[in-house]
Amino acid sequence: MIYYHTGEYISAQALLQDMQNDESVKYLTNCPEGFGQSTFYEANSSRGVIQMLEVFDRLSRKVSKCLGIAHAQLGNLVAIDGSLIDASLSMTWADYKSSSNKAKVHLGFDLNRSIPLKLYLTEGKGSERPFVSYILEPGQTGVIDRGYQDHERFDEWIDEGKHFVARLKNNTKWDVIDRLPFNKNGKVFFFAKVSLGDENHKMRHPVYLVGFHVRKKKFWVSTDRADLTAEQIAFIYSLRWEIEKLFSWWKRHLNVYHLILFFR
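RESULT FIELD:
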């Protein structure tokens, strides 16, 4: 599977032909005589998402040990987001619409090392919010967009020792507990400790709220971390764009559509 994608093959037949002539592949697969077509297709039919996720996890852990940390002073930062990927109509588990099937990738991206950290696959209609709890570990800070805003889950993460830097929807309500200092010559225009939510969805724990401008667009970002300045909170949220760049690169250059077609 890895050889298929790194070689950018367009068919299994082209892959097998090259593998027959590549001694390193024969060594790594412990198959010195090479693969026959029937052997390959039989093995491929019994392989699925579980095997792919196991390979992903092992490679991620191995690579992370070789990379430096870009923002060590800001803690262990993990951007979390989801993206749809086209699937074949025969993949009935990837239910989306009557005319198309799509799988949804839920991804945790290590912002300090710039590599994917954890990955889950669901049907296209799968909800994204629960996967923050699966991906985020105690001590880590999840960097998430406003689609993940959930005050009850915010409280649960705080109770579990998990942190977050989360963009809020524009209609979010809050009560100011304490206004905090910030650099008034920068992009930040608001910084305070607040009680987040209205009467029906109010958080149990106070959080820190930052308002800042980017190209005349207003952003409201909250976090439970008391050790960060307003400028650091805004900067951490800006790093979330890295996961969007990964999804774009993944689909455009790794041809993810063919990756999903391997699975039944």
